[in-house]
Recover the amino acids of this structure.
């Protein structure tokens, strides 16, 4: 199984390498047989053609028959949701989104004019940060999510300086992975 990162704008792997490294380390604890693949891109929120290309590139590179977990941050969570429907050979077993603007329905349509949220059947864990000035927590809950957790955190740096938060994300993601039909109660994490 592969865990594929789907970055938000401005690719945090270059500015903040610990961001994805902490997530990789945490997911390795809870999904020890999965390979973490850091596949990021740089685009701005209005560069929808780049977002479309990035999503198509991920599917083209990784639709090889191996099971997949998509881990998207910020707009990357929106892209991950859209491409979860595009894999033909591989099965997307879990969708994890961090601080993603899911309530901006027009963003989905800008990236894929044919996208239909009702077709998303992938078990989903979404997370948002209460102190996030970029993606407010009230637009980050995934509409098809099995669980949504709120953290007392912000958009990027909390994931860098508090790896235990990344552990909690991976642990909760495993819970959804192991119980794909169950809806869990949303909660606030310290």
């Amino acid at each position: 199984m592969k865990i594929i990162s789907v970055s938000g704008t401005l690719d945090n792997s270059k500015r903040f390498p610990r961001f994805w490294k902490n997530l990789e380390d945490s997911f390795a604890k809870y999904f020890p047989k999965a390979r973490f693949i850091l596949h990021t891109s740089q685009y701005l929120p209005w560069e929808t053609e780049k977002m479309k290309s990035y999503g198509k590139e991920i599917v083209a590179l990784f639709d090889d028959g191996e099971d997949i977990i998509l881990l998207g941050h910020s707009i990357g969570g929106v892209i991950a949701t859209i491409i979860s429907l595009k894999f033909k050979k591989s099965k997307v077993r879990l969708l994890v989104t961090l601080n993603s603007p899911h309530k901006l329905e027009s963003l989905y349509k800008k990236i894929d004019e044919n996208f239909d949220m009702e077709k998303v059947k992938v078990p989903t864990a979404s997370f948002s940060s209460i102190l996030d000035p970029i993606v407010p927590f009230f637009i980050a809950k995934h509409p098809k999510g099995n669980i949504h957790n709120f953290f007392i955190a912000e958009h990027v740096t909390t994931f860098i300086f508090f790896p235990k938060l990344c552990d909690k994300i991976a642990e909760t993601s495993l819970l959804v992975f192991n119980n794909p039909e169950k809806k869990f109660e949303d909660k606030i994490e310290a």
About this structure: The first strand starts at residue 2 and ends at 6. The mean pLDDT is 93. The domain at 2-189 is CATH 3.40.50.1820 (Rossmann fold). Residues 19 and 156 are 7 Å apart (CA to CA).
